[in-house]
User: What shape does this take?
Amino acid sequence: MPQKKRTIDRLLVLVVPAGLFIYASTRPLVRLQADMPMEFFLKPRREPMSRAAAENVARAYWNCAVTVIQWKYSYGSSLPENPPDDFQATGENLGPAAKEPALRAMYWQRLRKVWALPNVWKRTQVWSTAWMTAPIKNAVRWIEDYVGNLVRAA
Assistant: This one.
């Protein structure tokens, strides 16, 4: 019986730290879906812009949200009232209407509305061991700042 207990103890010594390492190294990651949701699309109110052109403009603004905006504002945060300078529709064949400030402002307001919808976000688990290196980097940065302040004060 004591031999069996030792085997279980040895197994626990290996399994528990491995389980804790795996648990600490998996993080949830929430990102905007690459596909534009239909709630984001504004139907053209003017005749000069066809539905296809309007969809291209909407996709360009959504692409900007996916590639630029979500890296500045996290999931669950609120977006500012006015669009940031880098919220721009870019791409080929968009036409001059895509650059209009009124249309840009309308798509920014539309983005603010859909930003809070859970169906426009995709949640995944990612592997990250930054939790091990971040404290070391912070300690090195603190030591550099502390030594730098001592040198400047002297």
Strands lie at 26-32, 121-127. The mean pLDDT is 85. The longest strand covers residues 26-32. The longest helix spans residues 2-25.
